[in-house]
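Annex B. Sample input.
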Amino acid sequence: MADTPMRGHARAAILAEATVQFNAHGVRQVSADKVIAAAGVSKVTFYRHFPTKDDLVVAYLEAELARVQAAVARAEGTPGERGLGAALADEICRPGFRGCPFINAAAEYPDDEHPVRAVVARFRAWMIGAIGEALKVRGAERPEQTARQIMMMRDGALVEGYVTGDAARVASELEAGVAALVSSTAAAPER
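Annex B, continued. Sample output.
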C-alpha cells in the first residue's frame, strides 16, 4: 500500500508525539494509548503504521539517530577545533533534555537481542566511528581508543547534565574535556 500524503502525515504525527512523550517520560512510562490520544489518530491508524509499540520505539530511535547524524555532519563543517566537542555538548542543552535517548532505551530494554537494542548498538558503533574519523582528520594518535574515551565522556556528561539539571555547566565541561583529550592525543609534529 503506497503512502499517501495523509498516511505520511499520520505516521509523522504519531512519531512526533511519541518523541515528545518518550523524551519527557521514558519509553516504558508512555503507553500506545497515550500516544494515540495525543497524536489525534485512531488505534487502527496507529497500528497500521506501527504494528507494536516496540516498532514505534525503534522508529523513534531511528529518528533520533538521524538527528544526531545531522548534528555531527553540521559540526564537521565547523572551522577549528570546536566542532566535535560542541556537537557533543549541544546534546545536553537541547530543549526537553532528559539524558541520552539511547542510554535510556538500553536501560529500559535489557535484552541484547531486542530490536531496540540493535538500534542502540548501531548508534554507538556509528558515533564511535564518526568521532574516530574526526580524530584521524585532526591527526590524533590512537583515534579508535580516543573515540571510545570521548564516547564515555559523552555518556557520563549526558547523565550528569540530566541528574544535576545544570546543562550549561556540563556542556561547557564536556567541550573542554574533549578538547583536552584531543589535544593530548594529537600526533607530535615532525622535527
